[in-house]
Amino acid sequence: MESNKTKALHYFIKEATVGELNYVVDDIGNILGNKDFLQEPEIIETLRSYYETHLSHQTVTGDKKVVVSQKGRIESEPANEPEGEGDAEPTGSKPSEFTYLDQARGIKFTLDVTTGECKIVSDSEKHEDEAVQGFKESLVESVDKYIAEDYKQNSTLGSVSIEGSDALTIDIEISCHNLNHKNFWGGEWLSRWTVKHTLNSNDFELTGKIIINNHYFEQGNIQFNLDKSFDTPISGTVKGSAQESIIALISKTEETYQQSLEDLYEEIKDTHMKSLRRKLPFTGKSFDWGVPKLI
Fold it and tell me: Which residue has the higher pLDDT, 221 or 76?
């Protein structure tokens, strides 16, 4: 495929807002007259990045939901074969199929980024260290409880990844996709948190990022994008369990940021937005918004 065309398609796919990837791909196919572009290695990698960037929610066998995250990437690994039968083939059977691990649910799965099809490889993946596995299971419960209490139902999933066996690096990702395309809007709240914590210690540190993207497209095209980083480590103290303390600090940080946005909206409404409108029309008289007398 021509370089300029590939760059253009990469941009269209990368900038597609959450939940609208299929619409964009279909439109590109209609313009080009086919969907052969989906087999191009550059486009396949762009699609993979899109799923990971938006922490996509995917349905695997039955009604199980998993999160696609870069933290869950499993690069090509040998398939199980009897000894002496030569080199093993990569796990993915197609160039567009990749393997991921959702640690929170212990599910290893494959994702075909050109079709969105997911298949379970294993649903009993556990951490090799029993103490870390127990810590993770309790942390997942705390994440799920927080999501159930503070986020919209059936729109949000949490992902947990842990590295280390004593000094832990914990990645907690929360992905809320609120879609209502029949009424011409959709949006997402993505929060990614990294926690440094040593098992059985009384403190931890939190860094992270919150990303908010909204899209309104009724008779227009309006997008609202925010990206807030918390690069300076926030110190936390364990009160009760470490898992609950970590989630409590995340909750407090997210709530404080959300409240600051609500205060900002009020300020904009009362100051900036009013200055964009005339207080009175050119006639100098207020417009009567009541029901017209002739109707």
Answer: 221
